[in-house]
User: Fold this.
Amino acid sequence: MTITSARTNTSPAGSTQTRALSSEDDVRVTGPGRYALALLRLGTGFIFLWAFLDKTLGLGFSTPPERAWINGGTPSQGFLNSDAVVGPLKGFFASIASPLTDVLFMAGMLGIGVAVILGIGLRVSAVAGSVIMVFMYLAEWPFAALTSSTNPLVDYHIIYALALIAVAATYAGDTWGFGVPWRKLAIVRSQPWLI
Assistant:
């Protein structure tokens, strides 16, 4: 990839230096924006990690103890077969509800939550998390009146997906995270999609 942009820095002595920007510098935010994006990253990661913990342990927020995964609960099946799933895709979502979807959903919540909090693998997390959020968005079918959604186009599922995309696109894992050392790993350098 050819980078055509440059950054000009003026030193205190008045001399000017110009250097080519890398693709990371092109999207990296400086100043207070870095900290705001790091906070967004940490908050978004905690949303996914909390979902995993609550559904695994039945902490009583969205999952009562008797429906906890460790007590034999079925996290994705419970949702996919519930009255919360409405609309023309209800049959599809009921047909995919299985122990496999429980494992995949819980692995996704844990993996996305930990990776986003640590600031590593943000591209993979953004894709996986956005896919999960879009599926949940479609399962709840917000396009009809009197559904659980308060907005037919942009609800919290879409905001979470956009937040994941924003923190990945801006290298938000570099601030208060392990994004820089992660990108220096040989496997990540050879496989940039792991950034």
